[in-house]
Amino acid sequence: MGSKGFQGSGARRFKSSTRSKSASTTRNSWNHSNLWNQTSGTNWNPWNLWNPVLIVALFALTLNAQSAKRVTIDDLMSLRTINDVKISPAGDQIAYTVSTPSVVRNAHEPALYVIPTTGGAPKQLAESYRIFTPALPAPRVRWRPDGSISVLVAEKTGPQVLSIKPDNTAAQIVTSAPLGVSGYEWSPDGKYLAFITRDAGPATPPIANKVGANPPATRLWLQPINPAGAARAITPAGQYVDSFAWSPDSKEIAYSWAPVVGFLAPYQTKIFAVSADSGAVRPIIDRAGMNVSPQFSPDGRKISFISTNERTGIIAPRGLAIADASAKNGNIRPYPMNGAWIAEILWQPDSQAVYVTMNEGTFATGAHMFEMPVVKVTLADGKAARLGEERATLQYNMSLSRDGRTLAYREVGARDMGDLVVMDVASKKTRQLTTINPELKQFALGELKAVSWKSFDGMEIWGLLLTPPGYEGQSKIPLLVYCHGGPIGGVTLGIFPQFMHVPGQIDPYPTEAFASAGFAVLFPMPRGGSGYGEAGHRMIINDWGGPDYKDIMAGVDHLIARGIADENRLGVMGASYGGYMTNWIVTQTSRFKAATAGASIADLNDLYYLTDGGDLMAEYYKLPWENPEGYARSSPITHAAKVTTPILISHGDRDPRVPLATAQKFFRRLQALGKTAEMDIYPGGGHVFYPPQQEKAVMTRNFEWMLRFIHP
C-alpha cells in the first residue's frame, strides 16, 4: 500500500542508513491536547452518510457474487464506529452516533441516528449539523425529559448543545458558551441544563507564561430552560470540575473537582453537591485520592463514584465505591472487583445494585482478561457477576431504560468493530439492532484467539494471537510482536485490539492488514499491565524491561516451539509504553529483523523532567537523583550500541505524554553509531494521531517498513 496521496505535505523525515529510502507522510496542524479549539474549522461542509440499512441491503445483493478479499489499509480506514448510545427513558427508542473516517476531508464524520428498540430502519437526525466527536469525549447523546434528543455539535465558538425531536424537527442550539461545552446533563424535571465550560483567559495574551500556573477554571454552569433564563456559574473559579450528576429530585448536582489541572489532577479530586436554587455547597466525599464520576441512586440516598480509596498513586485501581449521599464521607464502601478499573456506572431502579463496565485492570482473568463485559454488583453482599451470557465480547456505552428492563450498549466481538445491542435484563436475551460495517462479511479476516505460555519463573502469561486468513498451523510464518501501551494497559478483542473503546483508526499498526499479508501478530499481556491485578502492576517497579521483557520473549519462543513463528522472520512494534518496550527489545536482542516504535521512550529521565506526568516515574523509580542507576539501567538509550535491528521511529511534535526530545535523542545516538534507523515527526501530532490522513500515513509507513525487511 503506497502513500503517494500524501506527497507534498509530509512529516519531517530523518534517516541514518544508506540502505533507507524515504516515503512521504502527512502534515496536519491538529493538536490532540487542545480540545477547546477543534470545532470551528473553516473547510468543513455538511455531508451525507449512507443509511446503514441501505448499506446492508446492497452488500446482501453482492456478497454471494464476490469471493472474500484480503484486508488493506484503505479498508481499515473506511470502517465506522458507534461512539455513543443512549436509550430513551421509556425504553422504546435508542439514539446513537456513528463516526466515519474521511481521508479526503481529513475528519471523522459523525452522524446521529434514532432506532426503535424493537428494531427496524434507523433514522438520521440533524444532517446539517456537525456532531462533535474528537477521539474523546463522545458526543454525549442525551434524552431530554420532554422526549427530545440532545447532542454536542461543533459551532464557531466550540461544542454546543443541540436539541432535536426524534422526528427530526425543532432543532435548536440550546447553549452559547463562549468557549464551548465539554459536558452537560438535563435536570430530571426538565427545568435546567447544567454544563461544564472553561472560563475565558485574559483578553491580552501574556508576554510570558508562568510554568506550573493553572489555566482558567472549568466550572459548572446552570441554565434555566423552563422558563428560559441566562446561564450562571455555580462553582468557584478555584475548582476544576471533572464530572457531575443531578439528584433524582433535581434539587442538587453532585460534582467532582480538583484544585489543579494536569496528569495527576484526578488523584486530588473531591465530590461536592451544589443546590440548584440557592447555590449552597456541601461536601459529600472529601478525602485523598481519586473520587470522580458521581451518580445518585434512584432513591437519592446513595452515591456511586470511581475511587482509588484514598490512594494517590497511579498504580492504585480505579474502583467502584458507594457512599451515603446526605453526609460527608458517610459509610463509604469500596467494591474491589478483582482490581478492575471502572469506566461507567449505572444504577438499578431499586437502588440495590449497579451495573459497571471496565477499561483497564480487567474484571476477569485468564482467557477472559481480553473481554470487557457489563458486570452487575449487588450492594448488600458485594457480589459481582457478569450480566448476560459468558461470551467473548466487549460492551461499551451502556444505557438503561427508566424501568430497568432494557439495557442498550455497543457490543464488540473478536472480529468486528461493534454494533448496537439491546438486552432484556430479566431474561438476559439480546438482540443486535445494527450492522454498521457490513463489508466485514466480505473480508477474509484472520483468526484472533487467546494463547498462554509459561514465563521464565513459571508464571502463566496470556496474549492474543492473530493468524492470517486460512492459516492452519502447518507451516512457519513471520511473526510481529505488538507491545501494548501503559505500562498499565492491555489489549482486547476486535479489529483494533488496543483501541476498540474509541475510533480504532488511532491505532498506528494495521494488524488486520498484516494478517492479510501473511503475518501472525502476537499481542502479549506481560506482567506490569492489565490482567494480573494490582500485584501484577507492581511486578515491574524499578524494573521496566525486566520481567515484562522476559514474558514477551517467552511468548515468542512458545510460538516458535509450536511451529507457528519463523524464528528468522520476527518483527516488533508498539507505541507509548509499547514504543518503550520496542526500543528496549532491540537493545537486548538481535533476533528481530525490523522494529517500529511510536511515541517511544528512550531516556526515563525525560519522562520525569519533560512531561505532564513526571510523578508517574517517581512512583516506579523514585526521583531521578534518588535512583540514577535504575533510570540509566532501564533506559534504552543506555544500550543503543547493541542495536542491530532496523528501526523506524514515529512521533508527534505536540505529544504531551512522551516528549519528542526523548525519541530525537535515541535516533541521534543510533545515527551517530551508524545504525539503520529512520525517524518521522508528524507536525501537530499528539500522543495518538486522530486526523485520518495522519492515521493512514502512519499505518502505511509502518506496514511498508515491516515488508521491507521481513518477507511473508
Provide a descriptive summary of the structure in words.
There is one protein chain. The chain has 712 residues and is of the alpha+beta class. The protein has three domains: 4-30 and 444-709, Alpha/Beta hydrolase fold, catalytic domain (Rossmann fold, 3-Layer(aba) Sandwich), CATH 3.40.50.1820; 34-201 and 219-233; 236-387, Neuraminidase (6 Propeller). Strand 22 and strand 23 (353-360) form a beta hairpin. Helix 7 packs across helix 8 (614-621). Residues 1-10 and 17-66 have low confidence and may be disordered.
How many alpha or pi helices?
11
The beta-strand count equals 37
Radius of gyration: 25 Å
**Apparent shape:** globular
CATH topology of the largest domain: Rossmann fold
CATH H level of the largest domain: which superfamily? Alpha/Beta hydrolase fold, catalytic domain
Brief synopsis:
The chain has 11 helices and 37 strands. It is α+β, with helices and mostly antiparallel strands and 712 residues long. The strands form 8 sheets. The chain has a 9-stranded mixed beta sheet with strand order 1-37-36-35-34-32-33-31-30, with helices on both faces.
